[in-house]
Amino acid sequence: VLIPARNRRHLMLSPRLVAAVASGRFHIHAADHATEGIALLTGVAAGEPGAAGHYPHGSVLGHAQDALLAFRRACQMQEHPKGPRRHFRAGEHPHRR
Fold it and tell me: Which residues, 6 or more positions from 36, have their beta carbon under 8 angstroms from its beta carbon?
């Protein structure tokens, strides 16, 4: 079981469950942040963004970022299948130059 670390002090367990935890048949893990839970549940580091905002290759969040970028590119190609791609700045309208 995975619980938020700040809920640890409020945890109430039955004697039977306490015995199961003590014998190693049941485990309760507390995580301070979702990334700790991701690493615990998957066995793979969640990843921390680098200076440019990119997550490490092979990390859970790196895989998620790669998938989102691939989806973005596919959507851009669907909208504009031919011609050069132009990226617009925030507030800039693509049809008004």
Answer: 46
